[in-house]
């Protein structure tokens, strides 16, 4: 995977972990809600792999035997210092996943695929198939460009130190994501959207925002959520 537009050392070490631990504001609530939603989708996994693990925040929450990989050395170094344990291992991604074939039960790709060209994403999904055990599965999330996400992106580009215009090079909606994942031979078991109102309630109360996810899950049955979620078996 040669595309290093996003997963390089330009993002400050532990940046997203510090946002998560802030426990205040919309951006922190967004990460808490997102991680909670995806965590609940990962079950019966003896060994989990998180690709694009960044500073290791999600695996610290998952509480399963896991491996995190990322192309950014500074994020892996941070993850090793702050989250390594008997359950958690962190490795740097080079040209292929540093794991044996058919060695993991599940894989997460959280807000990763939008940063990759179709060629690089195709290669990465082939690697996912290689390291997954029989009946293993992937879970992934990515911005939903058939929602109001583009407006959120404009706001983030103004308020955040990171410019998403240069990073989100692959823009997905349900139809495009479904077609791409099926083309790689995965069997889709779940495809929906999530996150709608809940993070923005952090303006009123951070705790309230975290507890409103169940209402988001109801409303996103009728309205497009900001993020796509997909679960697919090998």
Summarize the structure.
The protein has 234 residues and is α/β, with parallel strands linked by helices. The chain has helices at 15-22, 26-39, 57-62, 73-83, 118-131, 149-159, 174-183, 206-211, 213-219, and strands at 48-51, 66-70, 88-92, 104-110, 132-143, 187-194, 227-233.
Q: Key terms for this structure?
A:
Rossmann fold; 37% helix; seven-stranded mixed sheet
The profile of the biggest β sheet is: 7 strands, mixed
* Contiguous runs where pLDDT drops below 50 for at least 5 residues: 1-7
Number of helices: 9
Radius of gyration: 17 Å
Structural class: alpha/beta
Element-by-element helix/strand order: HHEHEHEEHEHHEHHE
Word description of this protein:
With 234 residues, the protein is of the alpha/beta class. The protein has one domain (15-233): 3-Layer(aba) Sandwich (Rossmann fold). It has helices at residues 15-22, 26-39, 57-62, 73-83, 118-131, 149-159, 174-183, 206-211, 213-219, and strands spanning 48-51, 66-70, 88-92, 104-110, 132-143, 187-194, 227-233. Strands 3-2-1-4-5-7-6 form a seven-stranded mixed sheet, sandwiched between helices. Helix 1 packs across helix 2 (26-39). It is globular. The two termini are 21 Å apart. The model is unreliable at 1-7 (pLDDT under 50).
């Amino acid at each position: 995977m040669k595309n290093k537009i996003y997963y390089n050392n330009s993002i400050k070490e532990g940046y997203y972990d510090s946002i998560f631990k802030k426990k205040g504001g919309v951006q922190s609530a967004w990460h808490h809600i997102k991680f909670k939603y995806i965590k609940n989708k990962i079950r019966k996994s003896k060994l989990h792999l998180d690709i694009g693990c960044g500073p290791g925040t999600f695996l610290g929450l998952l509480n399963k035997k896991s491996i995190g990989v990322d192309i950014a050395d500074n994020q892996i170094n941070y993850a090793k210092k702050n989250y390594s344990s008997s359950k958690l291992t962190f490795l740097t991604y080079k040209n292929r996943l540093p794991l044996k074939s058919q060695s993991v039960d599940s894989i997460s790709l959280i807000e990763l695929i939008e940063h990759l060209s179709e060629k690089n994403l195709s290669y990465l999904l082939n690697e996912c198939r290689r390291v997954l055990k029989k009946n293993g599965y992937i879970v992934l999330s990515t911005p939903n460009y058939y929602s109001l996400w583009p407006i959120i992106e404009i706001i983030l580009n103004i308020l955040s130190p990171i410019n998403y215009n240069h990073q989100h090079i692959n823009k997905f909606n349900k139809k495009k994501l479904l077609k791409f994942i099926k083309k790689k031979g995965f069997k889709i078991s779940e495809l929906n959207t999530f996150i709608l109102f809940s993070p923005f309630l952090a303006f009123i109360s951070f705790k309230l925002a975290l507890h409103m996810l169940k209402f988001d899950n109801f409303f996103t049955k009728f309205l497009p959520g900001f993020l796509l979620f997909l679960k697919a078996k090998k």
